[in-house]
Amino acid sequence: MLIEISGKETEIPDGSSIEQLIRIKDAADNIVVVLNDVIIEQAQWENTALNANDRVELIQFVAGG
Amino acid sequence: MDDKFKIGGKELDSRLFIGTGKFADYNQIPDVIKASKSQVVTVALRRVDFDIPEENMLEYLSSDVIMMPNTSGARNADEAIKIARIARAASGSNWVKIEVISDQKYLLPDNFETITAVEILAKEGFVVLPYMSPDLMAAKRMVDAGAAAIMPLGAPIGTNRGLKTKELVKVLIDEIDLPIIVDAGIGRPSEAAEAMEMGCAAVLVNTAIATADDPVLMAEAFGQAVECGRKAYLAGPGATADLAKASSPLTGFLRNE
C-alpha cells in the first residue's frame, strides 16, 4: 500500500505497524512519529497499524540554536 | 559563592546556555558543553530525510543537561505550538524556546505570534522561554502569558555583532520580574560579560562558539566571561564621573603646596 512518509509517497507492505515501518526504514528509535497529525507514543508503535494514504511524519532532533 | 538561579523549578549553577547549530563536527559538542559548564542546551527538530540522513542530536547530549528544543521554522503561533508538542513527546523535556520568525532577511522574531504561543504552551505545562525583540510592552504580555524567562535578542541571529539592543535590554532588566536572557547576536566573551554586568540572568550563545577557530576553547572563554560578568554585577560597579578623580594622593613632597 502507498503511504506518505515525510512528504514522500512510499510503498510499504499492507497492514504494517509503525514499529514495522521503523524497522523497514532502518530509522532510529529516538524519533517522533506523527500519524495524520497525531503524535504516536513509542509504546503504541507496535499496536498502531498503518492504512493506505496515511500521512506519517518521522521527526528527529538536529543541531539548532 | 552560592548564586544559583531558578527557571521552571530547576536550579542552575551555570548562566550560559549553549546552542548546538553550525558546529563543523557534532563530536565537538560534548566537549563544548563540558568546557562551558553549560547546563541548558538548545536543539531543533527536523523531518527525518532518508535520502540525506542527518545525525540525531540526542546521541551527543548527556542526560545531565536540560534540553531546550526550539521552534525554529515556525512562522506563526500554531506552527510553534505544533513543534513544541512534538519536541516534548520526543525529548521528555518540557522546556521550549519559542522562536517564531517570518522575516527571512533579518530573522527578527514576531512578538505578537510569540505571545500567543507562550500563552497556550504555558497552560499546557511547558517551561516557555520566548525569543523576542526587546520591547517592554511585548515582554509584559509574555509575563502575563506565563513565560518562564524573557529572551531578547542582542543583534540578529548569527551576526556576532554584540549587544546592539543594550538600552532596550536594560529597560527589560529594570521592569520585568523574570530572568532576562540575551539570546542571539553575542559574538565575543566581552559582550557576554557586559550583558551579565548589566544584570541579565544568563546569556545564550551559539554562533560565536560554533564558528570560532577553536570552539572548545571559546566555550571555556564564554563560561568564564559569564561568571566574571555575574560577579561584577553582584559586586556593584562604582559610579562613573565626567572629570578625573585622583586615585593617588596629589599632594607630593617635591614642592611646597
Description:
The complex is a heterodimer of chains A (65) and B (257). Chain A is mostly beta strands and 65 residues long. A 5-stranded mixed beta sheet of chain A has the order 2-1-5-3-4, with no helix packed on it. Chain A is 11% helix and 37% strand. Chain B is of the alpha/beta class and 257 residues long. Chain B has a single domain (9-235), classed as Alpha-Beta Barrel (TIM Barrel), CATH 3.20.20.70. In chain B, helix 2 (77-91) packs across helix 3 (111-123) and helix 3 packs parallel to helix 4. Chain B starts with a strand and ends in a 22-residue tail after the last helix. The interface between A and B is medium-sized, with 21 and 38 residues. Strand 5 (55-63) of chain A pairs antiparallel with strand 4 of chain B, so a sheet runs across the interface.
Please specify the SSE layout and strand pairing.
The complex is a heterodimer of chains A (65) and B (257).
Chain A: E1 2-5, E2 8-11, H1 18-24, E3 32-35, E4 38-40, E5 55-63
Parallel strand pairs in A: 1-5
Antiparallel strand pairs in A: 1-2, 3-4, 3-5
Chain B: E1 5-7, E2 10-12, E3 16-19, H1 28-36, E4 40-47, E5 66-69, H2 77-91, E6 95-98, H3 111-123, E7 127-132, H4 136-145, E8 151-152, H5 166-175, E9 181-183, H6 189-198, E10 202-205, H7 207-210, H8 215-235
Parallel strand pairs in B: 3-4, 3-10, 4-5, 6-7, 7-8, 9-10
Antiparallel strand pairs in B: 1-2
Helix pairs in contact in B: 1-8, 2-3, 3-4, 6-8
